[in-house]
Amino acid sequence: MRIKLLLSVILLSLFFLLPGICLAGQEKVIFSYDILTSAEYQTSASQWQITKNTDSGLYKKDDGMLLKNDGNAYLIYPFTFSYHDYDQLKITFYSDQPVNLLLIPDITTIGNNSFELRRKVSVSENYQTVTFSLRHPFFKNKVADIGLNFSTGLPSDLVIKEIALVKLDFSEVISQIFKDYFLVAPYSPFTVNLFPTPRIFGHSALAYFLPLIFILVWLFFKSKKFRKIAGFSLLLVWILIDCRMGYEFLVQGRDDYKNFVAPALAEKKLRTYDDFYQFADWLKLNLNSEYSEINFYGFGSAHSPRLLQYLNYPLLIHNEEKTGPVYVTYNSQDISYNETEKRLYLKDKPLTEAGELIASFNKDSFIFIEE
Amino acid sequence: MIFAWIKIILAILLLWPRGYLLVYVIDRSKNFSFGFKSFVAFIFGIAAFGLDVFGANVFGGFKLSPWLLLFSALGQVFGLEAVIFFLERKFVYPKPKKLALFLKRQIQNFSAWSIWEKLILAVLILLITARVIFSLWTVVNIPTYDFDAWNNWNLRAKVIYTEGTIPLDPKSPFYLGGGIGSYPLNDALFKVWLLTAAGSFAESYINFPSVIYYILLLGIFYFSLSSKTPRLLKLLGLYLLSGVPLFYFHSHVAYADLLFSIFLFLTVGSLFYWLSGRGNSFFYISGIALAFSIWTKNEGLAILFPLIFITTIIFLVTKKCNLKQLLLYWFWPVVTIFPWLSFRILNRLNVLSGDSSTFQLIFNYKFISEIISSVFLRSHFNLLWLLILIIIITQIKLIWPKKSLRYLTLTLAVLFLIDNSVILFTDKAFDLSALARVNMQLVPLGVLFLIFFLRHFFAKINSKQVQ
């Protein structure tokens, strides 16, 4: 009886695992110098496109292709597949600027987005391989295309050697479960309300353990024999989640230490607000205390005027108004200083009367005071 | 810097005597343990101090000078001592001999613990210490980051501290300190007190109270459990509460939800203890905690007040309390919260956080899956709400006959349903940002339910085995 049961379990397991085992290790290269220069690709309707970039060409460099990135280039490829076909996307490249790399399924239609499909890649002269798990609800149904966003802020040279889609074997899928479970979402202004993680294959991790938890609770209440074991097991699950969430806090603390606490003053960056807190401190130091209000023109977070109001109170912040003589900009590329007229321009139109540029935090962040 | 921190610690300690005396006055039936009184004293001291400062500034026109703040921190000590003298013909003052005796008794009790209990306690203390150290590191090193912290809670404290008064011009963007005008000022005025003590503004000073709230809540929770509760169950409760992820997370986020959850726990939990037969003092302290919850967050007035009002009427109808007790229950909270409540009414502040004049009932069916996911399936609350839901559904027959546990279950369920119904059935859901946080406020009550259910469950099993 027991042998029959064991055999049934083995056969059933094989039935479910066989397709995975047979297809495991399959890799489809969709981007490389050889592919892009092949005659088949040249005549194909499905070709890589570069968008939101001045230069839409790719150039041979070393054994890869050079993309001259203005700072926020997209690489788009029309290719239909789901996670039943491939489990992982692998990209091998290097960049001369730090890159926020984002994989976007169905980029030309829905443009789905999740923290699991984001990676931060550091500057390097050697190729680095970055992987994205495709075991995510976004890839459950066939996607029509995928996009890769290379956000570097500043212009950069990216050399891409290869992009491939990979079918993982069973053990690799299992290891992906652990990788997913311990992936920590970056701290955002919304974290105070909820944690996106831990997730497995894009779903809340706890959902996978519900049957186990139900069985343990049932045993705890109904079975005299297994009550102790069930009780301790529930406590163990609690402790496991506690450890996982403790890990989350430690990772966030480590990131804060690395990006904000440890760096020198000029290089401090806080979570999603980049160097805004340093900018606020710089403004305190460089604006004469005789001025009690400013007109603020910021770029980036919609929160920045209110946040600046908190950080620099009692200074009054008027968001994109023309109240008083002081104008302060933060990373605003729409505003420029005209040296000959000595006034600020908002795009093509004059914004201020003639005045003086008092101090600059960076190229697009400065204090200007009308005469 | 170190001197500023010493002054901040002293400022917190200075609020303790008046809080202790207030709890002492409430404890007419001598039902509270010293540990419970000591921890509640801090939180009552903070809230009562803030109300005094508010009254003196808004109604008395006094500027928030260091002297006014110091007087507000200590002045009531004399008033409360007079009340105690009137009631007991004695003064309460620190008695080192009694304290030494108390400590000796604790050590003796501790030596009677089994080696396992000692080990578990040691691990738990280490764990909580590690959590507190991490939170301290965060508040000291990271400036105010989270939205409502700089848009409301800390902004108000910074504005009031900088101006030296509570701004009262309704047209000003900094009315009552700025942000959403209807938010109560308990948290902000405590922060103003700490900044005044430090002598300057710093992000670390203004973010520090969150850690204090976390420690106080753990202390209040642990010492509120009766001595009849098995030690291991008490330690288990403390462990579960200390690490509920979103709850712990708020120990380093400058929001007022953690502070509110203390008063919510004291309001509902004390009624539970009273129903469990722990004495009338728990009945009356619940009312004062309710008043302070209204002084802390709008949920106190909009959700907790009506619920407790109906609950106490049910107590009267079912003869669990008499009319005199009921009137006494409500008299002191009304007196306590009068300055803030009258100000609210006179200035027509909204009951809810936003504009409550255009409240509409709708069905946000699209949020159902998000609510289920947020409460049960993400790890915000570990297994807490999942276990509570299963226990209530499957063990209601065991819960129902025990009136105190029945009360706790019903109250918890009603609060849970109201909080989530605001999200599900009104147009005030906005972007669901408050969803997990309102459920977080109920966490201490949830853990209390879990611990007392387990105690009841094991007692039932043991009695069956004996039979």
Notes on the structure:
The complex is a heterodimer of chains A (371) and B (467). By secondary structure, chain A is of the alpha+beta class. Chain A folds into three domains: 19-181, Galactose-binding lectin (Jelly Rolls, Sandwich); 199-261; 271-370. Helix content of chain A is 31%, strand content 32%. Chain A has helices at residues 2-23, 33-36, 39-43, 170-181, 205-222, 227-261, 276-286, 304-312; strands at residues 27-32, 49-51, 58-61, 64-69, 72-81, 88-95, 99-105, 118-121, 128-133, 143-151, 156-166, 199-200, 203-204, 293-298, 316-319, 326-330, 335-338, 343-346, 349-350, 355-362, 365-370. In chain A, α8 (304-312) links the parallel β14 (293-298) and β15 (316-319). Chain A starts with a helix and ends with a strand. Chain B has one domain (2-466). In chain B, α13 packs antiparallel against α20 (403-425). Chain B is globular, with a radius of gyration of 22 Å. Classes of the chains: A alpha+beta (371), B mainly alpha (467). The interface between A and B is large, with 48 and 49 residues.
Please specify the SSE layout and strand pairing.
The complex is a heterodimer of chains A (about 375) and B (about 475).
Chain A: H1 2-23, E1 27-32, H2 33-36, H3 39-43, E2 49-51, E3 58-61, E4 64-69, E5 72-81, E6 88-95, E7 99-105, E8 118-121, E9 128-133, E10 143-151, E11 156-166, H4 170-181, E12 199-200, E13 203-204, H5 205-222, H6 227-261, H7 276-286, E14 293-298, H8 304-312, E15 316-319, E16 326-330, E17 335-338, E18 343-346, E19 349-350, E20 355-362, E21 365-370
Parallel strand pairs in A: 14-15, 14-16
Antiparallel strand pairs in A: 1-11, 2-5, 3-4, 4-11, 5-10, 6-9, 6-11, 7-8, 7-10, 12-13, 16-21, 17-18, 18-19, 20-21
Helix pairs in contact in A: 5-6, 7-8
Chain B: H1 2-14, H2 16-26, H3 34-58, H4 66-88, H5 96-111, H6 115-141, H7 147-163, H8 186-198, H9 203-207, H10 209-224, H11 231-243, H12 245-249, H13 257-275, H14 280-294, H15 298-317, H16 323-346, H17 368-377, H18 384-394, H19 396-399, H20 403-425, H21 435-441, H22 443-466
